[in-house]
Amino acid sequence: MEADDDEYVRPQVSISSLQDLLISEYKLKIINYAELNGHEDRNYRIFCEETESTEHKSDSSQDQCESVCTRNSCSAIQTGVCSKYEYVVKVMDLVHSENFSSRSERIQMQMKVQDHLLDCGFVCPKVVPSSSGSVVQRFVTSEENVHYLTYMTKYIHGSTLFDIAPLSTETLYEVGSLLAQLHCSLKDAVIPSLELKSASVWALENAFKIKDFVSKAELDAGEQSLVSAVLDHFAQNVLAQMTELPHGVIHGDFHDENILILGRRENNRITENLVSNSDQVVHIRSKYAAIDFADISYSPLVFDLAISASYFMMSHTRPDFIEIVGHFLCGYFMVRRPTPKEVRSLFASICAAFCREVVLAKHSYLEQSRSNSYLITAVDAGLRQLKEIWRIGQGDVMTVWSGIWERYGLTLENWCEEIVI
Fold this sequence. Notes:
alpha+beta; 4-stranded antiparallel sheet; 12 strands; globular
């Protein structure tokens, strides 16, 4: 999803227009493509070959890319052997033309974050500049003369965690460790934090804005009352003390669709890129990739942890969804120990993150004329789980997690005696 205005409109892009862009700006011709999942942007995995000339007729563009694939249905998509070059093109709506400069600057900050992580040994998308050297392009469709903003990154071979669900406790532990490593590495990044403040309604620090969308999300009276109670509790117990929480650059959308296990897909299975190295940090950074940094911001670190935890619960539809995320949290805490205030904020932040997804994803789905089913894959499960976790309450939930953490040798007493469940 993209962090930006509430007026965001999902791009409507033809492959002919996309082909024209690739030829004119990158000197590349599309020979195959697949649209990837996305909340509000359009994301295309493209297979290309170089072209020496931009003299291509737009009316033949569709013929040049007549082979259209879905995510896993095409053998060329699965094996990556149908072309010389593979990229991901992200297309974003540009509501007003004067937004181009501010959006472009934000993407430049995003790329600095990714470059820093690449330098630290993480696997994440590497931006591909155009033939003129620019990173961000203004994209005007030939059919409707609509302005969009786009950039391109190298494609990373792997399988999303969503594709290999249900996830093992070992995988969840390792992914929690990966998120903590990202946070620790980004502490040293030279990124202007003020330029990464987010005004997006998706940012947890702006959760109070969610109430404006509750009546538009087709929730019943009981569900609306629950969301209102959760958000009020979050505002009083977390947002009111937000300045006391450790801040840093966060991913903002770290979930099972934005985390890859590295390797190539063969016979519908992933051949993982594993390393035989006793260093757990090197092992995890070599095994997983984090993608889609469009929602990065300078925010409380616990918000990133809460957003991720809520997503992993929603994607795990079995009754032990509370227990399973305890392993993810433990993987994080083994790398970066939380402060007492972060531990106390965790339950309320996770519940607010549930509200964020349930309300805003459902609203976006309805705004897009119910055409983007990806938006509601977790909404029903999220509502059920939010009701359950809120009914159980913070004390009992933390007791469940504490029991799991003790199996790894972690207890709340290890962190600070001030922590009170």
